[in-house]
Write a structure and sequence with these properties.
Mean pLDDT: 94
Low-confidence stretches: 4-9
CATH topology: Uracil-DNA Glycosylase, subunit E
CATH architecture: 3-Layer(aba) Sandwich
Strand order of the largest sheet: 2-1-3-5-4
Number of strands: 5
Oligomer: single chain
Largest sheet: 5 strands, mixed
Number of domains: 1
Number of helices: 9
CATH superfamily: Uracil-DNA glycosylase-like domain
CATH class: Alpha Beta
Distance between the termini: 26 Å
Structural class: alpha/beta
Length: 256
């Protein structure tokens, strides 16, 4: 709920395992995520970036906090990335917003009918996602885009609770990159689904079906190369490749 995080939860939150579990809705979870202070290194880095700023954004006020997921609370598709970019989501307060990776992702979401517009600039720009929610296993911008295993594990309860709250409608998860894939599998296996053994390996356009453990619907897991500049500039991930994965996700979610 980055479209206007309130001060409902004003105090710092240093225990994700306890505070995430207590969230009764996606909106409440988003509020709590935005005030997390559990990882000292990430807190220091995100705030330093927000103070120092990039020259091109020196007149802007950076978000400088953990970034909640973005999209409706009844999404059928979840898109899972890695972590906020220092001068992207850490600046704007919305997942994949304000950098070139987001430009590629939102263009593709728009092209396949999952977003209201092809551009994502800032909170309040009118962007709406349809049946899709974007999230990440790590909610703070990490130095050199590399969170530590400890930071990943500390942040895990936020993603676990988010998927739990999405459970009634969630049918497909599109994972951007191998890091997100490895971080997500333990979360899924400890929730409403069971990860097959041997565990499915990440790859572009890989598809794994996870059987439900709670009597509900199974979950379809799709792999996609990350929308990083390293991948999109070199052609490892093309717009057509990304659209194809998202179209497959729509079909599996039976969105028409």
């Amino acid at each position: 709920m980055t479209e206007g995080i309130s001060e409902l939860v004003a105090e710092p939150l240093a225990d994700p395992a306890r505070t995430a579990a207590a969230a009764g809705s996606i909106d409440e979870l988003d509020e709590r995520v935005a005030h997390c202070t559990a990882c000292p290194r990430l807190v220091a880095w995100r705030e330093k970036v927000a103070r120092d700023k990039r020259a091109a954004f020196r007149e802007e006020q950076y978000w400088g906090r953990p970034v909640p997921g973005f999209g409706p609370s009844d999404a059928s598709i979840a898109v899972v990335g890695l972590a906020p970019a220092a001068h992207g989501a850490n600046r704007t307060g919305r997942m994949f917003t304000g950098d070139r990776s987001g430009t590629v992702l939102y263009r593709a979401l728009y092209d396949v009918g999952l977003a209201s517009q092809p551009d994502s600039h800032r909170i309040g720009d009118g962007l709406e996602l349809f049946s899709t929610r974007i999230t990440a296993p790590v909610r703070c911008a990490p130095p050199v885009n590399k969170p530590t295993p400890s930071e990943r594990d500390t942040c895990r309860p936020w993603l676990a609770r988010e998927l739990e709250l999405l459970r009634p409608t969630l049918r497909v998860v599109v994972v951007l990159g191998g890091y997100g894939w490895q971080a997500l599998l333990p979360v899924l296996n400890a929730s409403a689904w069971r990860v097959p053994r041997p565990r499915p390996k990440f790859g572009h356009d890989v598809h794994a079906q996870l059987p439900a453990a709670d009597g509900g619907a199974d979950l379809h897991l799709l792999g996609c190369y990350h929308v990083s500049q390293q991948n999109t500039f070199t052609g490892r991930l093309t717009p057509e490749m990304l659209r194809n994965v998202l179209t497959r996700a729509k079909d599996l979610a039976e969105l028409g």
